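Design review, sub-item: ligand-bound model
Attendees: FS, YL, KQ
YL presented the inputs for the SN-glycerol-3-phosphate complex:
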Amino acid sequence: PPPERKTLPENDFLIIAHRGASAYAAEHTLASYEMAIQMGADYIEIDLQMTKDGKLVAMHDRVITFNNAQQAVTDVTFDEIQLHSPEKAFERNYLDYTLPHYDDLRIVDLEEILLYFGDTVNYYIEIKSPKKYPGIEKELLKQLREHNLLDRTDIIPKVIIQSFDSQSLKDIFALEPSIPLIKLYTFEKEAHIPTEHLNELTQYASGVGVNSIAVSKEFIDLMHNKNLIVHPYTVNDAQTMRFLIDLGVNGFFTDRPDVANWVRSET
Ligand code: G3P
Ligand code: CA
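KQ shared the predicted structure:
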């Protein structure tokens, strides 16, 4: 028989630090991830792409600017990417936080992140544009296995993988069905997944990640009926957080894990 998908408990409420504590520190830096953990996040979210030389880099944007020219991540090496300072693009809006012990904020690759944090944190990894990066799934699983992050018995999964690309998630499922998988969506209006698609989703996915304005009570109830958890993105103000918690979401992506943690502790 085909392997069964992993299901996640509906009563866990997960704070997912979107690109780290990215309201306070340059996104996808070790500092941003570390701040997120200090602020009570359950997961650090990592956007993953692959460089020309096959490194898995933690980076959201698909293009990077070199001498006023834009180049795709897939066309540059990791060493070239590291010439960029993530600090430059960061707009410091929340000056009341200082970074504890980092003076060089660098773009990092997955290997460095896994070496640095090991199994002391939980990882919520997004495979970005997988069609552009053939082999990214296998390389990701290889690294997770090398760092002993798979086949574990933790109460909260050590690793969750997310993607907008269903084929990429299915490929992961075929290789490692024990990893919870989250299918991402962006809806223009209220969230809706056609029945046929939903039935397919329940073959491999543990939940859905949805832009927060599209989420409704009906949608959440339908997902829960199918044993799919719901994680809206990206929620940064306490009022919206409370609203979504009342609707029954199972956590959310936030740039401000400290605020999420205060709000969670109210309930
Ligand atoms: O992964 C959930 C959310 O982060 C998707 O949007 O563009 O911030 O990666 P993006
Ligand atoms: Ca993401």
